[in-house]
Predict the structure.
Amino acid sequence: MFWIELIIVLAIIFWGVRKGGTFLAMAGGVGMLIMTFVLHVKPSDPPITVILIMIAVICAASTMQACGGLEFMVKMAEKILRKNPQMITVLAPVVAYLFTFMCGTGHIVYSLLPVINEISLETGVRPERPISAAIVSSQQAITACPIAAATVAILAFMADSSYTSVNLFTLLLVCVPATLIGTIAAAFSVIKKGKELADDPEFQARVASGLIEDFSKKKVEEKPATKNAKISVAIFLGAMVVIVLLGAFQSFLPKFADDSVLPMTSVIEIFMLVAAAIMVIASKLNSDKILDQPVFRTGMFAVVLAFGLCWLVNTFIGDQASFITDNMSALTNRYPWIYIIAVFIVGAITTSQSSTTMIMVPIGIALGLPANIIVAGWIACSSNYFIPASGQCVAALAFDSAGTTKIGKFVLNHSYMVPGLVCTIVSVLVAIGLGAIVF
């Protein structure tokens, strides 16, 4: 029965990925129909905790965007990059990493790509170098951000398991340095990648045909940031700091009559909703505008996935927990890299960190893998660069006006492969080492 259920789950995931969009969640519903009505498998509970935290974080981030906070942050990033243009290849991925870390979504990189391209051409740096590394780092930072959907998911799964050593603070203690070191390694891996612009015939042909804009003559009219934009960023980041501090010093969490302590999952939900409420009140924002924000739309897509897809995966694992533990745990404990590679492959196929987290982390828990292996494997879920079909990878091709960022003839020989693999391998290895100490 295990193999029949596994084939059904894999077929549903493959079908959903092929169709794309929210159909992946709908396909999960089809899988649940087959599992319950045909195979008579008792359904597990949907990942309610994960869904609730996602909704709270999405509300806060979308409110900040509606107040102009994200636009203000992009302007700050541009100032940082323009002060050190010669270091664009190293600074751009670090800035992209920090933006994702602060906002909880890798889609923020879209706003940075035109700036990175422009500064690269002004300074004579091949745009492929900073752009490719920035795309990779903006995705890798999701596994270090305390409010990202993927982080929320792994924390919720760990909280419901026996892995008590993994909480928000210890997770960040491992993942932040691991992914940041991976980001810097990725930047240096492309610092000399490709031909210099002066020696690139394709670039020179574009210059000759007038396709390359002379940015040195471009006049930029800088609009001053609004007071509401600055306030919204301060409130959002302040809420993040409070959440992290409460995760580090849990003695400050409220205790109840039954001697239980407020769980960190509830802390995140409470402070994100409060932050959103304060932003609306302080800026006098019409809260209906929050529903129209891009962050809200992309975030709710992750919520829908968490419901449909993860319900199916949780049901499969719940029904086959004993088989997985008895037959596969010995192999994966002896060869933990099998699990890490499996997470990487699923991440490359789904192109979604949150989806991969919801599929693979429960499997790692069911296998009884060491905490540092589960967390290091989770970091490998940011592999949506491997098959360059994600929105970020495609968008970067268009923003590189020099035409240096490319997808090769054989698809996998693309600009993101080298910085991506370097970032993943370094991040995973550092996480394994740090995790062995922290967890």
